[in-house]
Amino acid sequence: MIETDFADIPYVGVLVASLVNMVLGMVWFSMPLFGRPWMALTHPGKTQEDLAKGPKTGYVVALLASLVTALFLAYLLLLLQAETVLDAFRVAVTLWVGFIATAYAQTYIFGGKPLKLYLIDSTYYLVLLLGQALILVLWPFAF
Questions:
Q1: Is the pTM here over 0.85, yes or no?
Q2: Can you say how many angstroms the Cα of residue 110 is from the centroid of all Cα atoms in its chain?
Q3: What tens digit of pLDDT does each residue of 68-102 get?
Q4: CA-to-CA distance for 53 and 35, rounded, in angstroms?
Q5: How many alpha carbons lie under 13 Å from residue 90 in its C-beta half-sphere?
């Protein structure tokens, strides 16, 4: 097994890659893109204003989860010796198919959630992983 440790991880790159989650989320779930259908499927009868009144803990959890994702993606890219954009994209797509798309499929089918919601939510994570992998593999001090 190839050995690497967490000291080799580009931590500034991880921080930048984790912020992609927040930026991508603002764009992906904006009303012109997928916000309107996502709202209708997840919060029927509510408006953006209704949701904005709620607690902001979701943003904190999203940022922390994104930090963990970026950290372990960086570690995996190091471990797999991914040095090119194509290598990074292969890792991201493999992770998405193997863990995210499949886990979401099970959760959504047994939860009776619509296919449209599955596609909006799961594809978001594909784009997120691709973006994070791109940043991590191109980070000036990475790999």
A1: yes
A2: 23
A3: 999 999 999 999 999 999 999 999 999 999 999 99
A4: 17
A5: 9
